Amino acid sequence: MMRLYAFLLLTQLATCKGGGSVHDIFDGTFQQIVDPLVKGYIFDNYGQFAASQLTFRSLKTHLAAHTDYTYEQLSEDSRSEIIEEVTDEIANNCNMGEVELEECKKRIGYQAPSKTSRDEL
Q1: Is the dihedral of CA 98, 52, 91, 30 positive or negative?
Q2: Which residue ranges make up each domain of the chain?
Q3: pTM above 0.85, yes or no
């Protein structure tokens, strides 16, 4: 039964339309693409983050506008978990935005990405 469930899950993920496939999750490509985008979005809106005014909806809308993923793909459990892990890293290391922005960036080792095309990631 477990094999059937795994097969059905993989089949569903493999048939995603647009930018995603099952491979982007398992080989780390998805995380490589969204990690700097999520961190950049949060740091660009750090005041709102600290005031708990940023939503996952606004974050995923931003990601959809800057990647080849649809909002629906970004909302799938497997991708949503990765996005949440990145936000949790900032929340946990920076006390939910209580830490000054520059100190927060240092704590997680954030460096603003250079202006490169998303195709280069």
Answers
A1: negative
A2: 59-108
A3: no
